[in-house]
């Protein structure tokens, strides 16, 4: 009988842990889905990302014929502010090494 009680406890703990993992995965997927809903910047807005010794820097240039409002999207770090770029204008944004460049979005 003692073995049966341990097995029940073990099963209950395992199921609870699995439920927590499923729920946290669902919440993460929902937040990531919201990010993908924003429109990507047009291809005439160019970006290069340089990896330095202790940081990553994204350099953005508007090579379009019209003004664009864009932001750099990072994973594992805050996105950049929205930047209004007239044709030919540039901006840069820097983050630590852990973040990954996820793209440019219109804002």
TrEMBL record:
Source species, domain of life: Bacteria
**InterPro entries listed in its UniProt record:** A-amylase_inhib_sf
Q: Which GO terms describe its molecular function?
A: alpha-amylase inhibitor activity
Sorted alphabetically, the keyword list is:
Signal
Signal peptide positions are 1-29
Q: Does the keyword Signal apply?
A: yes
Protein name, per record: Alpha amylase inhibitor
